Amino acid sequence: MEEAELVKGRLQAITDKRKIQEEISQKRLKIEEDKLKHQHLKKKALREKWLLDGISSGKEQEEMKKQNQQDQHQIQVLEQSILRLEKEIQDLEKAELQISTKEEAILKKLKSIERTTEDIIRSVKVEREERAEESIEDIYANIPDLPKSYIPSRLRKEINEEKEDDEQNRKALYA
């Protein structure tokens, strides 16, 4: 009973660990995407800044400055997002580590409780020996309304085998 609960707990730990690993991999992909966007926006902002230096008209310069400010804001948002995701990944990795240690503890308990094949074979042999000690006659003697002349089929087979062995021994003796 305890063994079944331990197995169930271990399977739950493995499932939780797998979910966390999937979540970590998804967050890492999101970080990579955000980093690529971040690099692209930085290059774009740098290019626009360079172009701003060359433009002297006021209207175009205002639009470029506005676009540059929007890009700078997006860069900051992406940087914050990347930092937040990295922090979440660290937290998930800590949770995964805790689940792994819990799983290892459960596995150790399970191995200490778990019966080996030798134990199972030994217990089956002991059960057979206990049953063998009780003779067939004793078993049938406890059945009410059974005629005294009744011989169980197993005993009949044993008796017939013994008779055949005796006949073969006689034939061998006289041959």
From TrEMBL:
Belongs to the paralemmin family. Keywords: Cell projection, Coiled coil, Cytoplasm, Synapse. The keyword Cell inner membrane does not apply. InterPro entries: Paralemmin. It comes from the Eukaryota. This is Palmdelphin. Residues 17-105 form a coiled coil. GO terms for biological process: regulation of cell shape. One of its GO terms (cellular component) is cytoplasm. It is found in: Cell projection, Dendrite; Cell projection, Dendritic spine; Cytoplasm. Pfam families: Paralemmin.
